[in-house]
Design goal:
By secondary structure, the chain is mainly β. The chain has one domain: Metal Binding Protein, Guanine Nucleotide Exchange Factor, Chain A (Beta Complex). Helix content is 11%, strand content 41%. The protein is built from two helices and ten strands, in the order E-E-E-H-E-E-E-E-E-E-E-H. It has a seven-stranded mixed beta sheet, covered by helices on one side. The longest helix is centred in the last third of the chain and has 8 residues. It starts with a strand and ends with a helix.
């Protein structure tokens, strides 16, 4: 699969990152409480495919439930452009809304029932 290097970040520009993303990436639309409220559309990448370029000092972290996921927001504009997901603790979830999707080809959208996370997590990993 061809990977492209793109930059993403928050609305005010305080947080910027570089990511290596598959062309025509899978975009996961989750219906859990937090993803639904913030409109987060996930592109999951490996740890080594992510580089924070600036803004470590502008990030604040929110955790809830199992306190496994690290939901990181820009403390200036409030945008959650990426985070460390519970489903992929050795990777990153990037917000597709914070990336130049026109550079990534044709994203493949898939729904995930995060309201019933425990019963459905295997389907996210392709185990069912």
């Amino acid at each position: 699969m061809n990977k492209l290097t793109v930059e993403g970040g928050c609305h005010c520009g305080a947080v910027k990152y570089s990511a290596n993303i598959d062309q025509n990436p899978e975009v996961i639309i989750c219906n859990c409480s937090v993803c639904s409220m913030v409109g987060f559309h996930h592109i999951i990448i490996a740890e080594e495919d992510f580089t924070l370029l600036q803004g470590d000092d502008a990030l604040t972290t929110y955790q809830f439930g199992s306190k496994t996921a690290e939901h990181m927001f820009c403390c200036k504009c409030g945008v959650k452009s990426f985070y460390k997901p519970r489903s992929h603790p050795d990777g990153w979830s990037l917000n597709a809304h914070c990336l130049p999707l026109e550079k990534l080809g044709t994203p493949q959208y898939r729904s995930f029932d995060g309201q019933n996370w425990e019963q459905n997590i295997d389907s996210l990993h392709g185990d069912s």
